[in-house]
Amino acid sequence: MQPPGHYDYWMTNPLSAADPRVRAGIGSGLRIGVLALQGDFREHLRAVEASGATGIGVRRPAELDGLDGLIIPGGESTAIDKLARAFELADPLRKHIAEGLPVYGSCAGMILLAHDIADPATDLAGNPQQTFGGLDITVRRNAFGRQRESFETDLDFRGLDFSATENGVAPVHAVFIRGPWVERVGPGVEVLAQVEPADPAHASHAADLQGTARIVAVRSGQLLATSFHPEVTGEKRVHELFIRMIRGEA
Ligand code: GLN
Fold this sequence. Notes:
Layout: H1 20-24, E1 31-35, H2 41-50, E2 54-58, E3 69-72, H3 77-86, H4 90-98, E4 103-106, H5 108-113, E5 114-117, E6 135-140, E7 150-155, E8 172-177, E9 181-185, E10 190-195, H6 206-209, E11 214-220, E12 223-226, H7 237-247
Parallel strand pairs: 1-2, 1-3, 3-4, 4-12, 5-6
Antiparallel strand pairs: 6-9, 7-8, 10-11, 11-12
Bound molecules: glutamine.
């Protein structure tokens, strides 16, 4: 266990080997890469391995070959963009996405999968940050406000019917850490979850939301993205949805 303050400490409820779905090994036989340039890739690797899949940290172009799926972690999208270009990963990654590699992006990963950024950061020469693209969405970075940095809420999340009990599908507990929201979705992009301003649980964010429900999870074909971080709460179902997408079961 890391000392408090370390990012790993957020992982209060790690994926448990006692969980029946972990025992069933929903991911077994799969090779799932996690882009390991910056950010919380370790948490995603742990989530992937807890599902029974083989997790592979990806830092070199050759490590993209033979993957069944790839996760782009949370972190800092500008740093991941710069490092991906420096490590000559950006173009191969675009090619794999275009060829249908299933990819899940959380937070900074969502930004990196977006076609457009409403408010891109610029480098010292004035060049805007770049994305890998693939998802026909426009995101706004740090959309919920820098000052709050982090909040948690429960979301209704579509596509998790496999986890239904007699009480229905339990909400997803979502941790937002300077996350983006989705301002535009193109045709073919399915909205999976929104933060609803009318819900009293979100009252502290009503001003930021400006009375509008904000999209925080989307899917398009083999691409999945969330504004929040299921990898830090022990929420297994978003990774499971991704694995089911890889398997062609969702
Ligand atoms: N604000 C970060 C960015 O723009 C994302 C934060 C995160 O991934 N937790 O890249």
